[in-house]
Structures are given as C-alpha cells and as structure tokens.
C-alpha cells in the first residue's frame, strides 16, 4: 500500500521488480564524510566494517594478505570496525570516528570489498571518494554498478592477488585517470544533501 518504494541501488531496484513485480525509485544512500586528504599511502590493505560476517568473506582477505607477502615486502594491513579478525596479519583499530575513518581510507592503497550479497557496498564507494582503489569481487552484482570494471577481481585468492599486483604496476595512472574523476562524481551523488533531495522529490 506504499505510495512510493525507494531503494539504494539499481541492483536492488531490479530485485524488487523481479521478485515482487513492483516499481521503485533509486535514491542511493549517504556515505560518511569521505574526501581526499593527500596523505602518504602507508597502508597497503584496508578492511572496513563487519569483518566477522560470513557474507563479507574476510577469510579470503587473510589468505590474500599472507600471499601478498611473497610479492611485496612489509605488507601493512589494517582493519577497523566493531569486529576483529584476531590475526597477527592485520592491525585492528576498532571503532573509529568519521575523521579517523577518512584518514584510514586516504592512507590505504587498496580496500578489500569482498562481500557477496550487497545492497550498495559503501566501502567501495567511500574508497573511491577518498582517492583509493577498491577491490570488489565479480560475483557481487552491485559491484558492477559502482566500481570500475577493471578493479573487479575473480572471487579467488589467486584472482585477488593477481588483480592487486596488476593494479600496483600502474597505480598512479589508475588513481589520476579513473579514481579521482569518479570520486568527484560520487562525493556529490552520495552526499546527504543529494540523497535528501531525491527523497523529497519522491513526495
């Protein structure tokens, strides 16, 4: 009996149509205040969010970090959020403020976004807004909507490691030509003001 159905991505819009045969309008979802700070990128791998959720597949993250040590010396991996992977491979920061979160995104070279079923996958969008490369997996439908397809990896340890090694070889080019232009677009598209205006426009 709703007058209007809103959703946070075109991927979910398609699911609503497919499963319920109902039309909906995409308003997206506001991101944290994430923007470029031009900090030194001294974190190689960043993990964000509900780390213990099986849907996030962070068992792959630990295997990837371990395997990357064979390609790069001194891999620095950091995680933040309420859940800890309890691994010596990852420095856990716990729950952080918005300011600290933005700094972590800016310091990271890559953000692993390995979730399978996602409505929007905020870390992918936020990483791009900070000028950082996200690594989502190709079997996550919403990743194709928001992430440059050249950053998507096969959902295997070997695939993720290979993607990171490949992107590392042209890292600055990817940042300047792909991430930064898209980040400008996303900071506006996913700002609280833009989301609020879309919701108002539904009325």
Explain the overall architecture.
With 203 residues, the chain is α/β, with parallel strands linked by helices. The protein has 8 helices and 7 strands; from the N terminus they run βαββαββαβαβαααα. It has helices at residues 10-20, 58-68, 98-107, 122-129, 141-146, 157-169, 171-189, 192-202; strands at 6-7, 25-26, 43-48, 77-80, 91-92, 108-113, 133-136. The strands form 2 sheets. It has a 5-stranded parallel sheet, with helices on both faces. Helix 2 packs across helix 6 (157-169) and helix 4 packs across helix 7. The longest helix is centred in the C-terminal third of the chain and has 19 residues, at 171-189. It is globular and about 55 Å long.
Spatial order of the strands forming the largest sheet: 5-4-3-6-7
Number of helices: 8
Strand content: 5-15%
In whole angstroms, the N-to-C terminal distance is: 15 Å
Question: What proportion of the residues is helical, as a percent range?
Answer: 40-55%
Order of helices and strands: EHEEHEEHEHEHHHH
Keywords:
8 helices, 5-stranded parallel beta sheet, 7 strands, two-stranded parallel ribbon, 203 residues, 44% helix, alpha/beta
How would you briefly describe this protein structure?
This protein is 44% helix and 13% strand.
What is the secondary structure topology, with strand pairs?
Layout: E1 6-7, H1 10-20, E2 25-26, E3 43-48, H2 58-68, E4 77-80, E5 91-92, H3 98-107, E6 108-113, H4 122-129, E7 133-136, H5 141-146, H6 157-169, H7 171-189, H8 192-202
Helix pairs in contact: 2-6, 4-7
